[in-house]
Amino acid sequence: MNTNSEKLLRVKDLHTHFFTRKGVVKAVDGVSFELEPGRILGLVGESGAGKSITGFSILGLIDPPGRVVSGEISFKGRDLAKLPEEELVKIRGKQISMVFQDPQTSLDPVFTIGYQITEALKAHGEKDMDKNWARAEELLRMVGIPSPKERLEDYPHQFSGGMRQRVGIAIAMASNPSLIIADEPSTALDVTIQAQVLTLMRKLVKSQGASMILITHDIALVGQFCDEICVMYAGCLVEKGLKETVIRNPVHPYTQGLIASIPGSQERRRRLKQIPGIMPSLLDLPSGCPFLPRCELGDETCRIRPELEETAPGHLAACHKVGS
């Protein structure tokens, strides 16, 4: 069995709250997971489940009125939650990189692609600009952009959406990080390009021995590209385990609902199933299980909040109804 010292990342009881005039928004409420080197972890759930905030919390990118109020974020044995900003700056982009959802907004429209990649390299210690430009060309070639040397002189608007996302991946991979956090990296792309981009990311991550956290609302994607899955709902984890276990034998009603809503997962000519209702406001969560108002199995026992418990080796779920 792996020891904690072999974990690249350990997130333990993470709480990230936003303090607003209307009250406290518990965007991340007691999330815990671990990630080994070379593995891909999927964080999946509906919009507002706390997936992106979890990723931003790891990198210390929570702006006021939000803040990480408690918990441990151990990366290579260092608790990122306790590091000062000047130390986090040295880690961001070099040891932990992020691929953002929309490359149209994450790339600066007034600078060339080559300038933006070389500036990322320069920011993390490489001052030889000849080496930086050679590395930038290598990166564009690596992510499958034709004529990479010529394209370095182009601006973001001269690239298609898929190509811009490839540039975002190139920037994220520039300093050979140990961990990449990909926040909905394919949402703005059509289905064909989406598969190409995610296949490329998986290939690059695996070839460089890095790890990745893939944040998405699409459980079909994590089932295809990830090694492990964490299902989030209303700021907390409701199920986690190996991909094969969670996809083939989901035990939490919410995970079952997500999988049942995938087109093609049911008999032909049958209506797609859907989870009734909407996610509750994080300002006014129900007592007990947050999924209770939408759960067909819920009863009075669910008025007590369930804890994540092992239902099978390595497979955990937070539900009183598991096995009942």
Structure description:
The chain is an alpha/beta fold and 324 residues long. The chain has a single domain, classed as Rossmann fold, CATH 3.40.50.300. It is built from eleven helices and twelve strands. It has helices at residues 51-59, 85-91, 103-106, 113-123, 129-142, 148-151, 161-173, 191-207, 219-225, 243-248, 253-260, and strands at 9-20, 23-35, 40-44, 66-75, 78-79, 96-99, 179-183, 211-216, 228-233, 236-242, 309-312, 315-317. The strands form two sheets. The protein has an eight-stranded mixed sheet with strand order 6-7-8-3-9-10-12-11, with helices on both faces. A four-stranded antiparallel sheet has the order 2-1-4-5. The chain is globular, with a radius of gyration of 20 Å. The model has no long low-confidence stretch (mean pLDDT 90).
Short overview:
With 324 residues, the protein is of the alpha/beta class. It has one domain (4-95, 175-317): P-loop containing nucleotide triphosphate hydrolases (Rossmann fold), CATH 3.40.50.
Q: Report the order of strands and helices.
A: EEEHEEHEHHHHHEHEHEEHHEE
Taking pLDDT < 50 over at least 5 consecutive residues as the criterion, the unreliable ranges are: none
Supply the CATH class.
Alpha Beta
> Strands across the major sheet, in which order?
6-7-8-3-9-10-12-11
Global morphology: globular
Number of domains: 1
CATH topology category name? Rossmann fold
CATH architecture: 3-Layer(aba) Sandwich
Structural class: alpha/beta
Report the span from N to C terminus.
30 Å
The CATH superfamily bears the name P-loop containing nucleotide triphosphate hydrolases
